Amino acid sequence: MRKFSSARPIAVLASTAMIALAAGTAHAQTAITAAATTADATESTVTGRVYDEATGQSLRGAIVRVAGSNVQDVTLEDGRFQVAVPAGPVTLRVEYVGLDTETRALDVPRGGNVVANIGLTSAELHDEDVVIRAAATGQALAINQQKTANGVVNIVSEETFGPSPDGNLGYVLQRLPGLSVDTDQDGSPTGINIRGIEGDYNSFQIDGNRVPTSGGGRGIGLTQFSGDGITTIEVIKAPTPDRDGDAIGGIVNVVTRTAFQRSGRQLSVDVGGIYSDLPEKFGHAVTAQYSDIFSIGGGDRNFGVSATISSYQTDRYSLNRDMDWVQVTPANNPTLNLGQYSNPVWFMEASHWEYDTRVTKTTSANLNLDFRTDPFNSFYARFFYSNADRHGVKYETDIDIDTRFQDAVGGRKTYAELRPDYGRGSANSQASRGWIGTEDDRETELFSVNLGGRHEGRNSLLTYDFFYSRNKQVTTNDNELNFLMEPDDPWLQFEYHLIDVSRGEVEINELTGRDPSDLSLVTEGELIMNNSVRTEDVYSAKVDFERSFDLGSSALTLKTGAKYYRSEPRFDQVADVYSMDEGFPYQQVVSINNSIILDGNKYFDVNPAKGVALLRSNPGLFEIEEEDSLEDSYFEDYNASETTAAGYVMGTLRFGAHTILGGVRYEHVSWKNTNYQVSYLDEEASFSPVEQGDSYGYWLPSIHFRHELAHNLIMRESYNRSYGRPRLSELTQGRFINEDGDISDGNPNLKPALSDNFDAQLEYYTKGGGLYSIALFYKNVRNFSYTQVYNFSTVDANGVPIFDPEGDFEYEVPLNGSTAKNYGIELIARQRFTFLPGALRGLSTSLSATFSDSEATYPNRDDDRKLPVPGFSKFLFTASLEWAWRGIELRGDYIYRDDYVEGLGDSIESDEFYAAEQRVDVRAAYSFTRNLRVYASVTNLTDEPQVSYSGYRQFVEDASLTGRKYRFGLEYKF
Q1: Is residue 12 classed exposed, middle or buried when 0-12, 13-18 and 19+ CB atoms within 10 A define those classes?
Q2: For 164-184, what is each residue's pLDDT tens digit?
Q3: Contacts by 682-690, CB closer than 8 A, 24 or more apart
Q4: Contacts of 337 (CB under 8 A, 6+ apart)
Q5: Is residue 947 predicted with pLDDT exceeding 50?
Q6: Is 61 in a helix, a strand, or coil?
Q7: Residue 217 near residue 728 (C-beta atoms within 8 A)
Q8: What is the mean pLDDT of residues 90-109?
Q9: Cβ pair 852, 827 in contact under 8 A
Q10: Fewer CB atoms < 10 Å away: N or C end of the chain?
Q11: 149-447-153 Cα angle (round to 5)
Q12: What gap in Å lies between CA 580 and CA 562, rounded to an integer?
């Protein structure tokens, strides 16, 4: 793609806005008559609810217009609206994409209120069965919310979430345009990237409030809860001033289900199983949902209760092979004869292969209470709880093929032979073989409660919200036991054959004939006992007030608000590291395993629990490693607080077919932290607490345009400034000085990254509930952090190492200074084919594609390689095809994500990328009646691996296999 100058996005935004203003004005002159409203007009109100007459479901995103005026309202999650009207005869016009427009004539008394509940129907869907109607309704819900949004937003409703084996919302989010989701080694979706910006710089919210994390970063861990109580997911890519400003990529807001979204009592139960084909084991999936509306305190249907509870157990067994590569320069190593190959040939210096017995259990529950004292005043209470438990053991076998090679001219040349698919070490390679066992027992609890209210006047609205949430992760057992077989008389010697590195298939053979099961060859071992507690508590309070003015030919809404947000993250880790020598009884801590995994023989599984038991019964076999224990116990510990005070003003002017929203937000952030300075210099152990802190503030302006160029043809343009707070791990980390004098630091003075964001989007909505859109985006980001490593000999008066290229010590610290420009185009097409004959009427499709580029600069890189930001992929594509007919539902999803950065080092050899990913998911269901439905789905149908590589695609660094996940069950609605 061509490079953008800094002025180009401004010019594009301005030109599209002017074109849209001209076109929209022409449309408005033919489609809208001038308002005849005068000073005696808005003395009364009409309130009510818009719903789907066939299902009783509330419709969010319906436009309720007062004929002959500029007055209109857009319905909320519960379908409610309120409009100020003149006394006397009034006509309402309700528009909703996918359903027929409805008009309602009313006679409104002076100073009074009329309640009008309006049901919408569809002549096109009138004779369709319940399955087709349900599919159409779900797609229309999301499309209408997007159509009526103020900024650039993508929305998906629960009816179209698609297959997910365990309720993880990542499976849904990765099907949205411009979004990609990182996955764990076990195949679980974890972090969210928006337009190439990684999760640490995005905001994940529940009902408009940012969720605390316990993973050490600012991005949410999607494995911590299930999404069964969620009704809508909003991806806000161009936030308005009344939204949080600390979101460079955007905001993901999940909206929980309320009773007023339904017309009455609903109770459903979903019971099923989960089958993982790699370990050939079963789990379970159970969900129950209840909602009802009651009349209390003399009111009529004014108290709503909605509750959801779910439980999942999933076997997340996985296979993995890790491969470490060394760059080999042909000119420096002529004896290897590498010049005959057109592509680089590197040597695989080490490899380990493993299987992980991880099992996850997730229980989530949410309860929403809504109370209306009258049509204008309401209160709510939202409660959310999730418990995610993870346990298992990872069993690794490790081989170091070579540890001594030097690529430089005159360096040690220890490779005997090297070809693209083969390598062999020599007697000078000093090779070794080892085994590792790692236990993983951790539990995460996420709890939140928010209380608030909504109070409407004829032309005003007051809302407020109080929020508390805690995320706590307790790792009770992260113990590791490892040992090394490193005989030196003679040394072990290995050769390797690359068979299919993308699936981790590598054959490694030992050439000296040593018996790999002879534990007398073991030379050393290590036992690491590790446990930790990580928490984050969040307190938040916000208030918003808006006032609308009818200006005759236009309407103006002014809005202001304030927010207080406080986060208290803490981390405490305790580690005891022990070493063992060749006299240790290693046979007591292993079990024989001669199975072949990824073309490698395991020989042994190492059991950490047996090592811990032996430590307690015979501690004399172990020697404490004071330096490692000290570092692991204190270096990353912290006790921090971060406070944000924010306020904003904004105005929305609507005239004819145009809407202009502009305003500014100010956020001031202060943070304090206590961490540790830890030293083992000259084998003298010491640690001391250090208090640190900083503060900063930013003005965040934004302006958003919306033009209805023709009926259902909408153009949007926007500019907004946002920021991303520094990574928590980099801010809070203390200082560690090892016994040699090397120093590793955190950086309490890191500043946030700041971004100017430009968007333009054209959307067309079809009468039958379809959507076609094209969007352009450009982000100019400054002050990302990067890791600087340099040599030093002495430190200055403040203890900061002074750069010295000939220094004997190494210093590592995160710094500000990286920049990035992300830009691209997003395409969306969603359509139901109800115009086709017969069974083809049940077809619908959803397509999205994102083409983008990233130009990032890193001060620690002086090579000419073009580098993106972490998490960025040049191309994303999703496709869904659904068919619903006479109770049958079939759906297939295809997801493709291009290569992306996992981590960047200081050279190509240390750069790590994830390879392109693609996956096919399918689902089938059959409804016997309106109430009874059976279903089955398969995730990762084609059994695709997860692959990462070092520098170049052929040098696979990591290959993980997770197999397929089958979910099946039945759902009954009472």
Answers
A1: middle
A2: 899 999 999 998 999 999 999
A3: 682/739, 683/626, 683/627, 683/739, 685/626, 685/627, 685/630, 687/630, 687/634, 690/734, 690/735
A4: none
A5: yes
A6: coil
A7: yes
A8: 93
A9: no
A10: C
A11: 15
A12: 59
